[in-house]
Amino acid sequence: MRTLILLALAGLGAQLVDGSLGMAYGVTSTTLLLAVGTNPAAASATVHLAEIGTTLVSGASHWRFGNVDWRVVAKVGIPGAVGAFAGATVLSSLSTAVAEPAMSLILLALGVYLLGRFTFVGFSSRNLGKPLRNRFLSPLGLVAGFVDATGGGGWGPVGTPAILASGRLEPRKVIGSIDTAEFLVTVAASIGFLAGLGHQGIDLAWAGALLVGGVIAAPIAAWLVRHVPPRVLGSAVGGIIVITNTRTLLNSDWVGAGGALATAVYVVLYAVWAAALTYSIREHRRNLAREREEGRTGTSGGPADTAEDAKESAPSA
């Protein structure tokens, strides 16, 4: 019973992060299952079974709060399901010893870019509203789905930063759309695991505990992502990506760092992340104050300009 309660709490925490930042449920939950001795295929299968419920509730919650772009969901979700099914069926024979650190290097670079961009520049609306093309979303979904199934997590860490970096969709809709599309990915991965493994090694009670915690957190996370400023949200996502993938690299055969060196690296990264979040929050508040001041004086698109524009754009009788 104690294990089930801990798993439920882990599921709650993982979904709270995943639903508000667009990543980390699979990585967090799978890591926990591996730590208690579950084999990789069974751990990934258990987490994906739980995610069928959590992603369904999360997607509905994001839709309720207006965080979903259904065109993006379809364009990235369907290829993602194909990739997830393929990844699930070959996991038992696939070695990710080389692929995992290579992917982590790419994601680490993207995370550094996002952290710097959103912290020091903020969210640019220059490309906002431009369509995300199939030739970008389809390969992205295919790769992210495959990585998600073979690594026990990866849909969010691959999909969220890639779409965020395009600047064509506001952060809350990126996260909401990725979370909603993940339902298709988890269903396909679960079918693939059940076809390849049956029920061997899959603990349905553990999956149920993760599910309960995730379902409780999903609506809270969907509300949170709607109210967190894009600039702050981008800095938070960038920091998560940097820390997560640094950990993967430090533990890989490529680096093999541990002990005092790894601890020192984590201390520095967390300090940088905290400073970045503090700066983002401060700049966001400063920009809000500036916008309110401009609104009172009628400059830069304030009320005075709006009134004049309304007169000029009114149709003549």
Structural description of this entry:
This protein is an all-alpha fold and 317 residues long. It has twelve helices and no strands. It has one domain (2-296). Helices cover 79% and strands 0% of the residues. Helix 7 packs antiparallel against helix 8 (171-197). It is globular, with a radius of gyration of 21 Å.
Relative strand content: under 5%
The total domain count is 1
Morphology call: globular
Average pLDDT confidence is 77
Quick one: biggest sheet?
A: none
Uncertain spans: 300-317
Question: Helicity level, as a percent range?
Answer: over 70%
Extended strand count = 0
Count, helices: 12
SSE inventory with pairings:
Blueprint: H1 2-21, H2 25-35, H3 40-64, H4 70-90, H5 99-120, H6 134-151, H7 155-166, H8 171-197, H9 204-227, H10 230-251, H11 259-297, H12 303-313
Subcellular location: Cell membrane; Membrane
Biased composition (Basic and acidic residues): 308-317
Protein name: Probable membrane transporter protein
Features:
globular, disordered C terminus, 12 helices, single chain
Give a concise summary.
The chain has 317 residues and is an all-alpha fold. It contains twelve helices and no strands. Helix 1 runs antiparallel to helix 2 (25-35) and helix 4 runs parallel beside helix 6.
